[in-house]
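Q: How do we represent a protein-ligand complex in a form that can be generated token by token?
A: Start from the inputs.
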Amino acid sequence: MRMNTWLKRLAAGVVLPGVLLLGACGNDGGGTTKTGSASTEGVQVRTIKAGIGNSETHPQGQGMIKFKELVEEKSGGKMKVQNFFDATLGDDQKMTEALQAGMQEVTVPSTSPLVGTIKEFGIYDFPFVFNSEEEAYAVLDGAVGQKLLDKLPGHDLVGLGYWENGFRNLTNSKHPVETAADFKGLKIRTMQNEVHLDAFSKLGANPSPMAFSEVFTALETGTVDGQENPLATIQTQKYFEVQDYLSITKHVYTPFVFLVSKKFWDGLSEEEQKIMSEAAQEAGKYQRELNQKENEKALKTLKEEGMKINEVTPEEMEKMKEIIQPVTDEYAKKFGADLVEEMMAEVEKVRGN
Ligand code: TK8
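Then emit the structure tokens for the protein with D-xylonic acid bound:
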């Protein structure tokens, strides 16, 4: 299937101009790279199909465009990235399965729906663990983050690092959520993740797990009253059109994880793997910075769009955290107390304790 499309594109001359194609096949020993500074001798002509759930205008979409530019530049135009946005290739779980089957090369899902495959990723879903992006980066880019990435190859996936979805905030169509009691009875869409599900239940809400691309319609038709996502997503998905209230709950930080199909990865040369890995990391750095900026801007835009926005006091956040604590404790045991301790120690280090 993939090969077919690839051949068709090649025949149509879409993938590469003839000159480069000859360069890739020929072995005249000189001038194999037309563009890019490094030699690309160990690089073949390849098409990388990459899909994400968010739109092209979302910082994640912009990160994918950066990834595409970098791969094409570093490979002298031999490796092409085809980006698919807005879950056109499927939602996070479906795309991850397509990678495992070798039908798609790249996806960058939230870590949360991955818990069905590797339960330990659930440690990132504990509410109110991180107070800032920097605390999250210390964990993700450190030993704990690497330990989780190391589990991926056992599931036909390769992880090239973490990008940023970010701190999640609650929107709903009923009322402002200022206190823990305000969650009572709210029907809230959550990601497909048991920690999120149990945490919202504990707060008295009525959560239902749902894939990302179904959320807008569910909000519009009133199947659910609310949802929670970072501000850039609330803006780019236009949830403000169907939600009146935005409460800055910052209840949990969600990472994106950059995934490659292991079947595809194992067929790459060392040089090609290096290109992919460097591009994913450089684009990730760009994506995180952009994400922080865009989240700030989104708050202003959402206000202009007429959303009624409220802050939540640190005291109320603390109360919410206390209510949820039994859920966190229960799952910490399931995911591994040592791992959770290591994560918390890393956070404390950033806090200077
Ligand atoms: C996009 C999702 C999204 C996530 C969600 O594929 O499902 O609410 O926050 O960003 O990963």
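The pocket of D-xylonic acid is lined by residues 52-54, 92, 109-110, 165, 191, 212, 229, 233, 254 (CB under 6 Å). The first strand starts at residue 46 and ends at 51.
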